[in-house]
Amino acid sequence: MFEAGGTPRAALTLQLGSYAGFVGAHWWNLQDAALRCESEVHEQECKVCPDVLYRAGRTLSGQETYTPRLILMDLKGSLNSLKQEGYLYGDMKIDTSVAWQGNLMTHQEEPPAKNLFLQDLSKLEGGMSSDGDFSPRALPLSKDVSQLPTQLHVSQKGHQLEGSVRVWSDYLRVRLHPRSIFMIHQYNDDGESSQLEAFGQGESLLHDPTYLEELEDRLHFYVEECDYLQGFQILCDLNNGFSGVGAKVTELLHDEYSGRGILTWGLTPVIDNVGVSWKDFYRLMNTVLGIVHLSSHSSLFCPLSLNGSLGLKPEAPVTLPYVHYDASLNFHSSAILATAMDTFSVPYRLHSSQFSMVQLADAFNSSGRKVVAAGAAVPFPISYGQSLPDALCSYQLAVPWTPLSSCGEQKDSCCFAQSVVLRGIGKENHISNLPPGSQPKSALHVCETGEEVLGSYLHARCPGTFSTSYLLQGPCKVLAPYPQFFSALLNKQGFLLDKLPSCTTAVESIPVLTALQSSPTLHSALYSLYKELHRVDVRRWASFFSAGQQVHNENVCLSIRLFGAARKMVIAACTVVAILP
Questions:
Q1: DSSP assignment, residue 513?
Q2: Structural domains in the chain plus CATH codes
Q3: 279: CB partners within 8 A, 6+ apart
Q4: Cα–Cα distance, 454 to 457 (Å, whole number)
Q5: Which residue among 21, 323, 464, 467 sits deepest, i.e. has the most Cβ atoms within 10 Å of its Cβ?
Q6: Percent of the chain with pLDDT over 90
Q7: Calpha distance 42→47 (Å, rounded)
Q8: How far is CA 478 from the centre of its chain?
Q9: Kindly report the CA angle at 294 between 18 and 281, in degrees rounded to 5?
Q10: Over 60: is that where the pLDDT of 242 sits?
Q11: pTM (2 decimals)?
Q12: CB-based contacts of 554: which residues, under 8 Å, 6+ apart?
């Protein structure tokens, strides 16, 4: 998205929470893969502009860098081998000189071990830190991809990381600016003690002047260097105390940066349905309060999760026909959500786009609707050489995407507005190319452009709906360390094969179809949360917490006081998203 004079409209990304870190790591790896493969895109093709999300800079030694415009908040223990200040500015040596003249004994903790992917990445980049060890992010990355070693463009060595990924930094391949990582040291990422588990705890963090001033300082650093800032995209955990952090962050952005877009993705990992515990009660309360507060301060809010529902007993996670993911692994589920987000966000990231963040949000909330539901086909099922009209006509009454907002399957085509993006279909397959004199199979087969095919399909399926659609030839690049959990029926480019191949190859790119919709399914999902809230005995849980659970009493009291208000607020939220017949 460009302003007059060719300056791109920048967006600042904020990641809040551990699962947001998982999704964000895949998200930035996808951006990195697209940047490295940028030379493969045809000149005439509508391109995604990396400058929307990235910033150019220089290290202290004058070397050019190209890093995400990102503020990332997480808890102590989530970085593993990644340094909080990153690697771009070299090793930050601490002055250890002391006045003591006697004998000294130095105890140095062993650095965390790196998995095979990070070790191989270090060797490929050839970066050496001052201590002689390979560093996975030691060399600055220039925006000019022609300067990168050839092997970095094409490397797709198989890495089975499922057993070695504990935190999101275990598979992050991009370098971060020293101002990106913002650690909350008073809470732990894992373990049973010092957990950020309640909405009230998260809210109170930004009541602390130390954290608030640090956040504001980082915001000013990134915002003030932008010629044109279109807004903020926020990835926020809904299921834990980061929902409270997100509530205060969006409130701050809404108050201080009026007129800028705030697009918030509320993220929830797949939840095991093994009975109801006090943690499920907290998760329900965090989710409800998060939805209400985040949507009220955002231009547009979308819950994202592979769970079938978000209640005390979540329904089974969704299935994707050609992806065999392990629902228990955040490494897997977050990859799917990041892939969908990479395509959802295309409208405000193109070199030439009709919509900024604000305009995209306005398309949905012109009648007060600020919450949207998401759906995606990852990958979009189309055979090699098949035309787009043939692929779309194979769907009769069923929608061609899987719901990703824990709202259940859409039973009809009714929705108020929708934004649909399809990528990865070559121009030669956009239309039918019927032989002269042959009878067209459908109205789609007489369309003259791919854009017309997609627009006609959406109009026929959702008559009366305000629809915007985008068709890109470039696919989503799924290079290492993206998990190889795809069906053996997909070829290297993610297209369907007629039969199982004699030998399998790694999938390097996939076509993807996504949809954001203002849909009646949202009303049903939020109303079910409202009914669950009414069934919860708050007094019973209050006495349970006071009987020895390791939580902060003041935060429990704050959360329970908010709990009663949340019941009324959910009713209001249901009214906001309801689609009247």
A1: E
A2: 10-88+161-523 (3.40.50.1440), 524-577 (no CATH)
A3: 197
A4: 5
A5: 21
A6: 53
A7: 9
A8: 15
A9: 65
A10: yes
A11: 0.88
A12: 200
